[in-house]
Amino acid sequence: MSLFVMKFGGSSVGDTERMQRVARRVAQKQDEGHQCVVVVSAMGDTTDELIDQAKILNDKLPAREMDMLLTTGEQISIALLSMAIQSLGRETVSYTGWQAGFRTEPVHGKARITDIQPERVLRSLEEGKIVIVAGFQGISEEGEITTLGRGGSDTTAVALAAAIKADACEIYTDVDGVYSTDPRIVKVARKLSEISYDEMLELAHLGTAVLHPRAVEYAKHSKVPLVVRSSFTYNEGTVVKEEAALEQGVVVSGIAYDKNVARISILGVEDIPGVLAGMFGALAREQIDVDIIVQSGISDGKADFSFTVTLDDRERAIEVIQGMESILPFREITSEDGLVKISIVGAGMVSHPGVAAQMFEVISSQGVNIKMVSTSEIKVSCVVEGTKLNEVIRALHTAYKLDAEVQAFVGGPQDRR
Amino acid sequence: MSLFVMKFGGSSVGDTERMQRVARRVAQKQDEGHQCVVVVSAMGDTTDELIDQAKILNDKLPAREMDMLLTTGEQISIALLSMAIQSLGRETVSYTGWQAGFRTEPVHGKARITDIQPERVLRSLEEGKIVIVAGFQGISEEGEITTLGRGGSDTTAVALAAAIKADACEIYTDVDGVYSTDPRIVKVARKLSEISYDEMLELAHLGTAVLHPRAVEYAKHSKVPLVVRSSFTYNEGTVVKEEAALEQGVVVSGIAYDKNVARISILGVEDIPGVLAGMFGALAREQIDVDIIVQSGISDGKADFSFTVTLDDRERAIEVIQGMESILPFREITSEDGLVKISIVGAGMVSHPGVAAQMFEVISSQGVNIKMVSTSEIKVSCVVEGTKLNEVIRALHTAYKLDAEVQAFVGGPQDRR
């Protein structure tokens, strides 16, 4: 007998019919002789509908009251799913975040879990019950209802799996696993049977939406095996774990891309000590995430810098830099969009030199200019013009021997929360 | 500065527009220099919509999970109302039942409050905040979410008012007070400026839907003055308190009626000791509420009994009695519907003999037969044929000098929960 945490996102429980399908799936797992804890998100559009109502009443959407409001979404889901599973003749019990023992920081909208006290969950499991837990929510020491922010239900599932020492945490979504790249672009994208936490983390950070980075970090930290699989099919999913088996000759596991990229260039910056620290410190204080940073050389005691931010942050980032001109003088600031960041990820890269060089060559062979480069032990990212994205991805996919023999299954819109 | 608990029912917060009206009303109360705690029900049809979804998934509607489900309704209301009041520039905080300190029996669907620990509410009041509390809900000692059942939000408001020693508990509803009788029947029904707890209790039990009996009992016990008033107008409401001022010459305060009445008659019952106890004990065990009981005489060692139950309980009551025939033999069992129970209520009755006789006379003068009679210190009830209900009520209203000079304001459908 194994103990599984099964997480179902909002679109998997979008209506009562889907809820019944999830119920049957959970019951089946129990029939196979396993103990089950189910973590569930709010049903389909519930969260958006609640936000719409709130906007009418207070356009500032005060964070504490928004947590009070939005946590009802998951509470509705757990109650209904619990009833659905009970109607299949099983004993179940549903718990809100605070009932399941999720303690968090006293922060609203994006609290981090500080502690899990899973005694009630464990007791109910011992009683032979299927336990259904509300994702995305917890309670602060002061007894305030909090939410974990985006990707919260994934994090709930992983953290709970770690706390109760589950054998695995299964993330059910509307794709049937992690793919070597976006199957909408590359029809022969390959479903990965295994991938390491670190690779998954890079892919997650690079905009592959299957798992939230925070959940992967939690899984890595606590060594909980994750399984990403479809709630609509019975296909084997992708296992995310410490050390993934490397397929023969495959050094790159996946290719990701991110269109949400703007490049800002600051030209003719006075090359005095502390310039970089001052500039990027100011951006950090404004909560602007800077991704790739490149210093492109010094002439006449002046330096040129480029860095990338998300499209949303572009205007604010420029304002911050302009506001510092009296302290950090520069000649010119420019920005550019229509770009895309393409990344290759693979744990095998570290022992295979020339992987980056091959990437530059493939991109160039498509007649596409590389604007910025950034590398880590298991990743190479290039910021390029976005015009020939699909061609570049397809060429890289083939070059790194990722093409599968059959076409990928492509699900609906993905399940994020 | 006074401390008020203001309770708004589901139709008062039925949509965002009404929510905003309630918000302004609460802000106004604060502007008048008062501290405010607001108790609120689920918005309009929320509860029914949740029940409809639950029915699809599990027609047994398991009680624990139904409490988990339905308490989200009030949680949505408090969050939205809190945001609406904040947008008027006030500091507010919303609390669920368990956050506000409502401890209940470990029973689902109809728990009684065992204790209130209002420290968080009091602390927030001291901080100058308007406190918004979810009606209808609490928590058991085991940490289970419970609901108080029908009339629950009224009870929440009254119990909280008692616990925090509020100066009054205002129940905002869609009628502007307690009337001498149903204004839909008697256009010149009179709005009562004051009424005693005991009178209100009788009226509440007799089907006048403005306040739930449990809430009135709680108010009586804790001596919290209640005010019933409209959430749509600024008219003075009705004050419910220990001793209501008696108007000159008025012995009857109100006239109530109840159409939900069936009479069951058991004829030729063996007159052996314990017959009544056996019969009504069996009905009680089946949760059948028996209202009026009349033993109509003994001949040949056989007795005839009549009693009333609600229309819903009629069939079950007959089955229970028939099931006991071997132990409690009788000749015949019959039942009758199309009846109505009419009651006159007045604290002044006790010192004015002849009030009951006058009632019988008025009913007879309308050519209506009286089938059963029951009296208490402040009430006389008659079960009569339902055919001429309106004429009888109007005649009684005039006879007891209750007719007002102006027509009553009649609101929409009443707010029960």
Automatic annotation (TrEMBL), chains A, B:
Reaction equation(s) it catalyzes: L-aspartate + ATP = 4-phospho-L-aspartate + ADP
GO molecular function annotations of the record? aspartate kinase activity
SUPFAM superfamilies hit by this protein: ACT-like, Carbamate kinase-like
Domain ACT: start-end pairs = 264-338, 344-417
Q: What class of enzyme is it?
A: transferase
Q: InterPro entries recorded for this chain?
A: AceGlu_kinase-like_sf, ACT-like_dom_sf, ACT_Aspartokinase, ACT_dom, AKii-LysC-BS, Asp/Glu/Uridylate_kinase, Asp_kin_monofn, Asp_kinase
Pathway, per record: Amino-acid biosynthesis; L-lysine biosynthesis via DAP pathway; (S)-tetrahydrodipicolinate from L-aspartate: step 1/4; Amino-acid biosynthesis; L-methionine biosynthesis via de novo pathway; L-homoserine from L-aspartate: step 1/3; Amino-acid biosynthesis; L-threonine biosynthesis; L-threonine from L-aspartate: step 1/5
What Pfam families does the record tag this protein with?
Answer: AA_kinase (PF00696), ACT (PF01842), ACT_9 (PF22468)
Q: What is the E.C. number?
A: 2.7.2.4
Q: Which UniProt keywords apply?
A: Amino-acid biosynthesis, ATP-binding, Diaminopimelate biosynthesis, Kinase, Lysine biosynthesis, Nucleotide-binding, Transferase
Function field = Catalyzes the phosphorylation of the beta-carboxyl group of aspartic acid with ATP to yield 4-phospho-L-aspartate, which is involved in the branched biosynthetic pathway leading to the biosynthesis of amino acids threonine, isoleucine and methionine.
Q: Which family does it belong to?
A: Belongs to the aspartokinase family.
> Could you tell me which NCBIfam families the record lists for this protein?
asp_kin_monofn (TIGR00656), asp_kinases (TIGR00657), PRK06635.1-2 (NF005154), PRK06635.1-4 (NF005155)
Q: What is this protein called?
A: Aspartokinase
Organism, by scientific name, is: Paenibacillus polygoni
